[in-house]
Fold this sequence. Notes:
Layout: E1 23-26, E2 29-30, E3 40-41, E4 48-49, H1 51-65, E5 73-74, E6 80-81, E7 86-89, H2 91-103, E8 109-111, E9 114-117, H3 123-128, E10 132-140, H4 146-159, E11 162-164, E12 169-171, H5 172-176, E13 187-192, E14 195-200, H6 204-217, E15 221-224, E16 251-253, E17 260-267, E18 270-277
Amino acid sequence: MNFSWLFGLVILSQQMNVPGSLVITNNSQPIPVHTPTYFSMNFPILPILDTEKLNKFMDEIDLYVTKNPKNAIIDKNGNIIPEQVGYRLNRQVFTENIFSYYFNNGSSNLEVPLAAIYPRVDSELLGNIRGEKIGEYITFFNSNNKERNNNIYLAANAINNFVLFPGEIFSFNNVVGERTAGKGYMPATVIVKGEYSEDFGGGICQVSSTLFNAVDNAGLKVVKRYSHSREVSYVPPKRDATVSWNGPDLIFKNEYKQPILILAKSLENKLKVEIYSSDVITYSPKKVPYLPYQKHPPK
């Protein structure tokens, strides 16, 4: 039995508004949502609001008006691009307005009430946690392999500007997401059970491996990391981090008392990952190895 009527508003002696006259607006413009013929349940004496219908109606409005927030980021020139506040339907206020319309002869034009959604990372925070470089790593690749380079660029861009707060865990697969053609990834060489093959996203293991060495250099706790079934050309033996969707993942945890910022970029034949934090951070850096032919690793 549906008991949603128990949560409705009961008005014993007032006439209800005609539901068909209700107009929902956003920025004073009507929005294309289907207004139900009625929200009330069919009781002969008591007009009672059907909260199940109202919730479905609010879901539809929410899909139309929701704007996701955007974190502040650092652009390629080192400038901070400010955050953007997001918005969603304020369900409590909207419900009160619906009650007023139906049972108190309220206005038939309802402007959608919005609740702010604030981003996790604002300009002030970003400015504070770019003060101290605590780790970095650089690898090189063949700039003539366009498919592989494309995949490296996309994966590096996915982790760029990521902020990991104290106590949080970073999962490469979760942050980068599934590597599909729809996201722009191309087939390129991958290593499967010791053999070379082709698959979408080939080359992104260089991004995960570069990231692993950068966070290891910063002294962050590596929770999970797997090596390929054969050696790779861009890092020393056993210093790689293979990743695969629904398979191996690179996972690390920020056990420091300050947030950390990941900056990653690929340029020409070089991939660079840097780890930053506040200049008041106390951390324990580690020395990480480079390939012998890389004569000038970052200090």
